[in-house]
Amino acid sequence: MNIKQFNEHITSLFGEHLHKYGDDEYGFTYISKDEFHKIGYTTNLTLETIEEAYRNGVDMIVTHHAPWSFLFGMEEACIEKLKQYEMNHFWIHLPLDFVKFGTCTSLFNEIGIDTILEYSTYEEEELPGIGEYKEAIPFSNLVGKLEEKMEEKVKSWRNHDKPVKRIAILTGAGNNTNLIERALEKGCDTYITGEKTLYTVQHAKFKGINLIVGSHTFTEVFGVESLAHKLQDRDPAIEIIRVYEEHLE
């Protein structure tokens, strides 16, 4: 695959989502070569994920997050490492959060949800996706599913005695209490996200909705995985591999 073909695939996959949130929500951190053969995907670009990609023969890294400018000096260090290893890096943020195959839908798929009632969207503010099981399951089973799929412990608060049937998800930084209100308006009994504050926990307890908080990184990695598989579907000659990332959070 070459860069022109890659850009065409991204445009085709994301459609209106590509520019809906501004042109600074996706792009290349560095392009080292026009043609590449092996895509390594993960949530974050760091010196460690670049090293891991290099060890696995990756020449194009695809992530959800850029090396953000507020991580002072990280972008510059990552670019130097990409140059050293002659690697490309592409990242895509909000478009991947809100496209139908993106981060939220992918996490729903991982926990075996039966029906997605609403996809996560951005209409002046972020709104969670809503999904439902045909048959309610015990809260402990849901916690177990998440821990198995994300390969990490999650924080969980069981705030009522009913089984779990309808779930709201906003992956990543879904700690705003407005998101819990939205979940309640949609009849959800459980809210899943990737970050919390004291107020997230307090509000969920006060309103009697279950809360499960995984890491920002591993609630979102399945969306990047979905994108990588879609790129491979368009060019079966491309190899894809998940790049190991530390459970840092």
From TrEMBL:
Binding site for a divalent metal cation 2: 64
Transmembrane residue ranges: none
Keywords tagged on the record: Metal-binding
Species of origin: Bacillus thuringiensis serovar yosoo
Residues of the signal peptide: none
Family, similarity comment: Belongs to the GTP cyclohydrolase I type 2/NIF3 family.
Residues annotated for a divalent metal cation 1 binding in this entry: 65, 97, 216, 220
Superkingdom classification of source: Bacteria
An annotated Gene Ontology molecular function: metal ion binding
GO cellular component, one term: cytoplasm
Listed InterPro entries: DUF34/NIF3, DUF34/NIF3_sf
Protein name in UniProt: GTP cyclohydrolase 1 type 2 homolog
